[in-house]
Design goal:
mainly alpha, 18 helices, about 75% helix
């Protein structure tokens, strides 16, 4: 491929990223579907034989590009959530109940469901089965924008999406937290592959440090970095350092890089640290326009990185990524999207009732939350990370299986997201109007 052609393709891709949101606004079609499809079509061009995107050969590149993409998305998600999480206020914790239920019940059930299906039914080796479950369990903060909150809303805004829409809040808060909380299961798969779980002491060490310790350290590191940066930006004694007053949005990029780096240095989970950092920054001067400025610059960067990842995924699909896909991979992908995640998510939300302050989550809305567990960039990162940390003989099959599953999720969830969410919005508006009439 000539340098001139590379420039043409990159320019065309960026133009596509700019115009897609406008073209697809009223259609039941998501931008990820179009981007993956374009990547697949590029992979069918004659020159594609000259450039191969082999995830095994390019594993470090895939790991770091997807890692950065998830970090940017987590920062954006944390800044976008309006609902505060006050550590010492019990009512605040209750308002986040959908996230806690999806994380504590839905996510372990999804990991176990995929792992048991792959190992006990399809005969996949236990380490690979656990890795498959761990990588496919977290929902994606990158590709799920159609079912998440749109961005920070400030006092006086008409549409405070996440405060009124429990479905979008549940999916957004879940996506912000479960990428980091998938790490213990990924670590378990790596330990199983390397024989590092020798007896009860090995299991105790994994439970104590990987399941609990790293979570606490990651959250603490993220909160500390977020608090320090927020104090600097909003309340620094030196006026020249109050970045909020001049509207310098690059603090958001510095924040997620610092939070991730500090958390990893102290051996905590960096993904959790970034989300905690974003929530902490947002908690200081909650109604400041500065949050919107930071979110906008993060969203732009996320768009560019997502463009690269999705075009690359589509290109890889038609140039060999699915070469090792067999019926087992198809069964896992279809079962996850249509059965395992919907069932696990619904069981997690059974019996849940929102407080009057935050509306309610009725049966149809619980089904929507359970169904829209979009898989994407985080899955690619976890497979790249784990296969770089231990030897998995099924590595190429794993890449084919997750590639198929992500493509299926992009298609199914992308087609259904717009009409389903629009219908839920209409129902919620009608319900709120009826409640207003009843109160009047």
């Amino acid at each position: 491929m000539t340098p001139e052609l590379v420039y043409v393709l990159l320019g065309g891709a960026l133009l596509l990223a700019a115009v897609l949101p406008q073209l697809l606004h009223r259609w039941a079609l998501s931008a990820p579907i179009v981007l993956v499809t374009v990547g697949m079509l590029v992979g069918l061009l004659p020159f594609s034989d000259e450039v191969a995107l082999d995830p095994v050969a390019l594993r470090p590149v895939v790991e770091h590009v997807t890692e950065l993409t998830v970090l940017v998305a987590l920062m954006g998600v944390g800044l976008a959530i309006d609902r505060p999480l006050r550590w010492r206020v019990r009512a605040s914790w209750r308002s986040w109940a959908p996230a806690w239920r999806l994380l504590a019940i839905g996510m372990p059930l999804t990991v176990a469901g995929v792992a048991v299906l792959a190992w006990g039914v399809l005969g996949v080796a236990p380490p690979a089965a656990v890795l498959l479950g761990a990588a496919l369990a977290p929902t994606d903060p990158v590709l799920a924008s159609d079912v998440q909150v749109g961005g920070p809303t400030l006092e006086g805004d008409v549409d405070e999406i996440d405060e009124e829409d429990e479905v979008r809040f549940a999916l957004t808060s879940e996506a912000g937290l479960n990428d980091g909380l998938a790490f213990p299961a990924v670590t378990l798969a790596v330990l199983l592959a390397g024989g590092g779980l020798a007896g009860w002491s090995g299991w105790a060490a994994w439970l104590g440090w990987d399941v609990v310790g790293k979570v606490v350290v990651g959250v603490a590191a993220g909160c500390a970095v977020g608090w320090a940066l927020a104090r600097l930006a909003f309340r620094s004694p030196a006026r020249s350092l109050r970045l909020a007053e001049v509207g310098e949005p690059l603090l958001a990029i510095a924040a997620f890089l610092l939070a991730y780096g500090v958390a990893e240095l102290v051996h905590g989970y960096g993904f959790l640290a970034v989300f905690a950092c974003a929530l902490t920054v947002r908690s200081v001067e909650r109604d400041s326009d500065y949050h919107r400025h930071m979110h906008d610059v993060v969203h732009r960067l996320e768009t560019l990185l997502t463009l690269v990842v999705l075009l690359g995924l589509g290109y890889a699909i038609t140039t060999g990524l699915l070469a090792h896909l067999d019926w087992r991979g198809v069964v896992v992908g279809v079962a996850l999207v249509l059965l395992v995640r919907p069932l696990a998510g619904y069981l997690a939300l059974v019996g849940y009732r929102c407080s009057d302050e935050h509306g309610r989550l009725d049966a149809r809305e619980r089904v929507a939350v359970a169904f829209f567990g979009v898989r994407g960039v985080g899955t690619l990162f976890y497979v790249a990370y784990a296969t770089g940390a231990a030897v998995f003989p099924e590595e190429r099959w794993l890449w084919s299986a997750v590639g198929f599953t992500i493509a299926l999720s992009v298609l199914v969830h992308g087609v259904l997201a717009t009409p389903v969410m629009r219908r839920l919005d209409i129902r919620r508006d009608g319900r709120d109007a009826s409640a207003e009439v009843a109160r009047g």
